[in-house]
Amino acid sequence: MESVRQQKVARLLQKELGQLFQSSINHLCQGNMVSITVVRVTPDLSFARVYVSVFPAQEPAEVVDHINAHIHEVTHALYPRIRNQFRKMPEVRFYYDDSLDYAERIDEILKDNP
Predict the structure, then answer these.
(1) Domain 4-112 has CATH 3.20.20.70
(2) Tens digit of pLDDT for each residue in 52-74?
(3) In degrees to the nearest 10, what's the CA dihedral of 35, 59, 93, 7?
(4) Rounded to an integer, what distance in angstroms lies between the CA atom of residue 52 and that of residue 72?
């Protein structure tokens, strides 16, 4: 169970990263729309797992790998926006959120079975 502090940090990271992907670092998305779906922060606030959904990419994992390859650019753009709220910025890594694909597969299975 996440603490209140973890939830606040996660919400702040989700909001700021979402704004960054819409404006200053949207070139990392390779022409796709990237949405931050979930942010999970460790109890010591040192690491954040950021789950993203990518639309309309044929290979969303490649987009996420490209973002992770340029993680320095992302953190460099993120730090000035959140530096007053953190003593030490959490290490950020991006992961593909396949929950929408999973829900779509379940929906198709349920439609096929009468």
Answers:
(1) no
(2) 998 887 888 899 999 999 999 99
(3) 30
(4) 18
